[in-house]
Design a protein that fits this description.
The protein has 388 residues and is of the alpha/beta class. Helix content is 33%, strand content 20%. It has helices at 56-63, 91-101, 109-112, 119-131, 135-148, 154-157, 167-178, 197-214, 225-231, 249-254, 259-267, 272-275, 307-311, 353-365, and strands spanning 12-25, 28-41, 45-49, 72-81, 84-85, 102-105, 185-189, 217-221, 234-239, 242-248, 317-318, 325-326. The protein has an eight-stranded mixed beta sheet with strand order 6-7-8-3-9-10-12-11, with helices on both faces. Strands 2-1-4-5 form a four-stranded antiparallel beta sheet, with helices on one face. The chain binds adenosine-5'-triphosphate, iron/sulfur cluster (SF4) and magnesium ion.
């Protein structure tokens, strides 16, 4: 597991607050992201996990200005990069800032690399656009970057086309392009899903080395909890367009405060031992994002659901620390006070105190647990080929 670092003392680089994104479709309006908030500090890795379609990619695409508008639109929220709002400024200004300060790696490099241009020209182009260097300097920088991402014989490979590289090498080229302008934030949307385990381990190791050298913040989207355990400092669990639980890796794995997180843990193999066990899938399907439910979005699938859950969407409550939050009525303080003691301060206004009291009473009456015990064996993830 990644060594714990006290990131709270580090500079917050990216701040996302109440981000909401919708798409117009023939079937209606898809509410893809519904009030997502998070922060990432220098040198910190935030993993975003959740089932397919829960809004992970749309969230990070919004930060990069990659939402097609129309049919998409950002209906609320702000995104601040080094304290500067990048949603409220002109597209040109935002793009300049984004391209230099935020780099992005996609799952499939073939869809992001231009098949008709040598990789050297593509990397040099990125550097030239943002740093305004000459063609010769751009080529020199391209070779340096290919060496940095450990492409052998970079001086000759710089003139090769993407199809002449293997999948892992193409992903390294993507990483070289993403870090070409020394971004302070690197977004990786499932960067290793298409790769085999050994290559995946090498790419993750490279990302960690680059992060250490450059003190970059990383936002990592992945389906693999083993990857989360090895790479992340903190985790945001998304469900139906919302973050339903967030906290440090240890809090999410060992002190989970949301039934969905626990369901994900049971449904996903995390290590070789678990791969041989019978995994328990989460029954049912996420709600329709055309018409999200008024209550908790996990209500239909939740083994712990109470009456209030179908009626009111819970706010984010504190679980085991001020930074560990769960959007679940089971976490409502037992003695719900006006103002909601135990809740994150900034979210108190969203909670109706009478509902909090109802939920507390319902939880107590049914003797429900508010804390989900995790397996006692230490979680190690799939460590094959990984650096400690
Ligand atoms: N251009 C678009 N037009 C309409 N709907 C869209 C568009 N892009 C995304 N969506 C919808 O937004 C929702 C969230 O999609 P998103 O791609 O963010 O999911 P995801 O969590 O990244 O899933 P996956 O794990 O499969 O990559 C989905 O319902 C998706 O169909
Ligand atoms: S709020 Fe209710 S339905 Fe939603 S996750 Fe918590 S217990 Fe389950
Ligand atoms: Mg995605």
């Amino acid at each position: 597991m990644k060594n714990a670092t006290n990131h709270r003392t580090k500079e917050t680089l990216l701040e996302v607050s109440d981000l909401r994104v919708e798409f117009d479709t023939y079937g209606g309006i898809v509410k893809a992201v519904r009030g997502v908030s998070f922060e990432v500090a220098r040198g910190e890795t935030l993993a975003i996990v959740g089932e397919s379609g829960c809004g992970k990619s749309v969230t990070v695409q919004s930060l990069m200005g990659l939402i097609p508008m129309p049919p998409g639109r950002i209906t609320s929220g702000f995104v601040k990069l080094k304290g500067q709002d990048i949603l409220g400024v002109s597209l040109e200004k935002a793009n300049q800032f984004r391209g230099k300060e935020i780099g992005m790696i996609f799952q499939d490099p073939m869809t992001s690399l231009n098949p008709t241009m040598t990789v050297g020209k593509q990397i040099a182009e990125t550097v030239r656009v943002h740093d305004g260097v000459s063609a010769d300097e751009g080529r020199k920088r391209a070779i340096e970057l290919l060496e940095l991402v450990q492409i052998p014989e970079a001086k000759s490979r710089v003139d090769h086309y993407p199809f002449q590289f293997s999948g892992g090498m193409r992903q390294r080229v993507m990483i070289a392009m993403a870090i070409a302008c020394k971004p302070s934030v690197l977004i990786a949307d499932e960067p290793t899903t298409a790769l085999d385990v050994t290559i995946q381990a090498q790419i993750l190791r490279l990302l960690r080395e680059l992060q250490r050298e450059r003190d970059m913040a990383i936002i990592l989207i992945t389906h693999d909890l083993g990857v989360v355990a090895q790479m992340a400092d903190k985790v945001a669990v998304m469900y139906a367009g919302q973050i339903v639980e967030s906290g440090t890796v240890d809090e999410i794995f060992y002190q989970s405060g949301h039934p969905y997180t626990l369901g994900l843990r049971s449904a996903m193999p995390e290590n070789d031992e678990e791969k041989s066990k019978v995994l328990i899938p989460i029954e049912g399907a996420p709600p329709d994002l055309f018409n999200p439910p008024v209550g908790c979005s996990y209500f239909e699938r939740c083994p712990n659901a109470m009456k209030i859950c179908g009626r009111e969407n819970p706010a984010l409550f504190n679980v085991s620390s001020p930074e560990h939050l769960s959007r679940c009525w089971l976490q409502v303080p037992r003695r719900a006070q006006p103002g909601g003691g135990g809740m994150r301060k900034s979210l108190r206004h969203t909670l109706n105190t009478a509902d909090a009291a109802d939920a507390a009473a319902e939880t107590a009456a049914e003797g429900r647990v508010t804390f989900f015990e995790q397996p006692s064996a230490p979680f190690r993830g799939d460590e094959s080929g990984m650096a400690p």
